[in-house]
Amino acid sequence: xxxxxxxxxxxxxxxxxxxxxxxxxxxxxxxxxxxxxxxxxxxxxxxxxxxxxxxxxxxxxxxxxxxxxxxxxxxxxxxxxxxxxxxxxxxxxxxxxxxxxxxxxxxxxxxxxxxxxxxxxxxxxxxxxxxxxxxxxxxxxxxxxxxxx
Length: 149
Description:
Layout: E1 7-11, H1 15-27, E2 31-35, H2 38-47, E3 52-56, H3 64-74, E4 79-84, H4 89-97, E5 102-105, H5 110-148
Parallel strand pairs: 1-2, 1-3, 3-4, 4-5
Helix pairs in contact: 2-3
């Protein structure tokens, strides 16, 4: 089985941030796509699979927490990290209530970002393995039950 690079979607309306994040993430071994607004982000998630999304909280078309909810409904297994230059108790609570997997503030500490990304990818892999184990146990139980009848 060929291991592919983890795929990350970066959503921010600041082109400088998109370029910087793309360069830093690709340099660290990730496949990266960018989107400058929520509509473009949603379109990309319909045609590509991502392990993780980095979402700016202030987007031109909708609020990042609203995009978070849309992504949670559309791609629930994708890990989602909110990034904001406007940290507040209100938006951090809203992000976590909308099931953000992490919350970071700008300017981004790249070392911290990579640590958070790795932790989220590890959690995603644990969830995948747990799901596979549960399915295997269910199938085994059904085979045993079916064999008894």
